[in-house]
């Protein structure tokens, strides 16, 4: 279960051990069958991945590759593990992610060098300025503000997404928060920035997750077909010129790369958005889930409100989106959540 950071928090080797052992047990294989490991975390010294694996899972001398890719860290570890298997370089790879975070809003770790978000922030500052508030909520709130200005969106729709996700969390025993709120409680909870309230923002969290990636040959050799889940397609994208050239806060927070990645993924899988039933997506803030509906092609641009009004993002609708409760309820230990 993801948990709120505090001084008595379980340390990362123990979190990683639990996740890794449960993944191996679920797959029904010993750690000795793992040929490589890709480990994701953001807040930790170099080689935390080795420390997490050595004394929790085993010392077999395999390559252990550490990944730090901010909110995409866990999914990047999974992406790398899948590539190793798909490319024929390994038959069985462990993807592991963990995080032990500090309390409060995210902060930059270094003040004596260029901030990797400096060019993104320039766009936001040029358009809406910079307030004395945590930067991440400002970035996503301003993306929402842009959507409001462009399409006349009522910010209550952002709150409706958080309301839905908190409701979903009551079914997830691993969620950091498992409490249902009324829409009014979401709207009138403590303000973080502009229309974004605390119940529309993901919390900082501690936690770990793991997955075993294996080739079809390995699966058949170990008679794992009943347990195996096939990855039909996976695509990773980074920023395009439009992120920086169009003075758009929606594109600054990743709209275009999400749209391109989704298009490529559906093409590779031979499917379209209407073929999907369940979606887990990145709701670091309610606004991001909202604009991701449009980026994924679930509805035309500017029409996410209609999707919500139809109930097409929850049980009984076209899709069940974030049945886990999403990051808003489940928590957001960066290295683990993309797994």
TrEMBL record:
Keyword Transport carried by entry: yes
Compartments, as annotated in UniProt: Peroxisome
Domain Thiolase N-terminal stretches: 7-216
Single GO MF annotation: acyltransferase activity, transferring groups other than amino-acyl groups
InterPro entries: Thiolase-like, Thiolase_acyl_enz_int_AS, Thiolase_C_2, Thiolase_CS, Thiolase_N
The keyword Flavoprotein appears for this protein: no
Ranges of residues in domain Thiolase C-terminal: 248-337
Primary subcellular site in the record, as a coarse category: other
Top-level EC class: transferase
This enzyme's EC code(s): 2.3.1.176
GO CC term, one of those recorded: peroxisome
Gene Ontology process terms (BP): lipid transport
Gene3D superfamilies, sorted: 3.40.47.10
Keywords: Lipid transport, Lipid-binding, Peroxisome, Transferase, Transport
Protein name: propanoyl-CoA C-acyltransferase
Organism this protein belongs to: Rynchops niger
Native organism taxonomy: Eukaryota, Metazoa, Chordata, Craniata, Vertebrata
């Amino acid at each position: 279960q993801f948990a709120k950071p505090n001084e008595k928090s379980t340390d990362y080797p123990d979190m990683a051990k639990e996740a890794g052992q449960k993944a191996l047990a679920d797959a029904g294989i010993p750690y000795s069958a793992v040929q490589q490991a890709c480990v994701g975390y953001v807040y930790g010294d170099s080689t935390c991945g080795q420390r997490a694996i050595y004394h929790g899972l085993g010392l077999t001398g395999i390559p252990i590759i550490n990944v730090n890719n901010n909110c995409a860290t866990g999914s990047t570890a999974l992406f790398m593990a899948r590539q190793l298997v798909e490319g024929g370089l390994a038959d069985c790879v462990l993807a592991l992610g963990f995080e032990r975070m500090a309390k409060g809003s995210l902060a930059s770790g270094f003040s004596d060098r260029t901030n990797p978000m400096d060019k993104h922030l320039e766009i936001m500052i040029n358009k809406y300025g910079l307030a004395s508030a945590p930067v991440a909520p400002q970035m996503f709130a301003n993306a929402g503000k842009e959507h409001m200005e462009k399409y006349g969106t009522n910010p209550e729709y952002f709150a409706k997404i958080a309301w839905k996700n908190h409701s979903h969390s009551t079914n997830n025993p691993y969620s950091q928060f498992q409490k249902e709120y009324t829409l009014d409680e979401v709207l009138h909870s403590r303000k973080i920035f502009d229309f974004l309230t605390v119940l529309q923002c993901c919390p900082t969290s501690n936690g770990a997750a793991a997955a075993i990636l294996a080739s079809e040959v390995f699966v058949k050799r170990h008679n794992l077909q009943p347990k195996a889940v096939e990855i039909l397609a996976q695509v990773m994208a980074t920023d395009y010129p439009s992120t920086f050239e169009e003075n758009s806060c929606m594109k600054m927070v990743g709209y275009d790369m999400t749209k391109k990645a989704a298009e490529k993924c559906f093409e590779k899988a031979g499917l379209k958005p209407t073929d999907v039933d369940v979606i887990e997506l990145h709701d670091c803030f309610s606004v991001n889930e909202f604009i991701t509906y449009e980026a994924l092609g679930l509805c035309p641009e500017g029409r996410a409100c209609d999707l919500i009004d139809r109930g097409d993002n929850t049980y009984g609708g076209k899709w069940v989106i974030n049945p886990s409760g999403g990051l808003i309820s489940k928590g957001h230990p960066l290295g683990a959540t993309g797994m």
